[in-house]
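Budget justification aside, the reviewers requested a transparent look at the raw inputs and outputs of the sequence design task funded under Objective 1. We therefore reproduce one unedited record. The lines immediately below are the structure tokens for a 94-residue chain.
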């Protein structure tokens, strides 16, 4: 019959102490990140795609109609110019 092994617990205590001491020595290096040129290009392409989705489509028929109206010298008067300026300023948030 074995009554007890007291030396084993002493060895375990020493091993646990050594584990704690070695884990306490943590390096305090500064973290950093670098972004590749390819990732930057992909981010810019994604941004431009989002802007394109939010931008209204160009209506070629309306542009052609406006070009014809501008050819008429009587069309451009102060009322039309002021109206266009007001619409432009409200479109950009001013």
């Amino acid at each position: 019959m074995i009554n007890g092994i007291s030396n084993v617990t002493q060895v375990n205590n020493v091993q646990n102490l050594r584990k704690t001491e070695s884990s306490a020595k943590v390096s305090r290096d500064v973290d950093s990140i670098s972004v590749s040129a390819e990732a930057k290009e992909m981010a810019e392409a994604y941004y431009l795609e989002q802007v394109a989705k939010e931008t209204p489509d160009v209506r070629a028929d309306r542009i052609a109609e406006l070009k014809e109206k501008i050819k008429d010298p009587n069309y451009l008067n102060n009322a039309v110019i002021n109206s266009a300026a007001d619409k432009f300023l409200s479109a950009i948030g001013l």
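Helices lie at 6-24, 37-54, 60-71, 78-91. The CA atoms of residues 18 and 24 lie 10 Å apart. Computational costs for records of this kind are itemized in the attached budget.
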